[in-house]
User: Fold this.
Amino acid sequence: MRLRDLDVRLELGLQESVRSAVVAGHGIAFISRLAIEGDLDAGRIATARVRGLDPVREIFLARASGRSETRVARAFVAFAQEHLPG
Assistant:
């Protein structure tokens, strides 16, 4: 299936806007599971697998060369490595 074959009525740029629209019952979305954990736990949102679809997201880390890594940056990388596959 191609994206242009879908009946897309709304495109939202911010993850929180997407989450709010789905919670309000305005449709479905592809969104990070981490972004909706609270809604899943509260039963406001449900997830589903689409047969034949295995979405993959690549995440890249970029930082300025010649600068020391901060504690916050190290903590973020540790968090990402713990929560993301691969």
Q: What stands out?
A: Helices lie at 15-23, 37-42, 71-83.
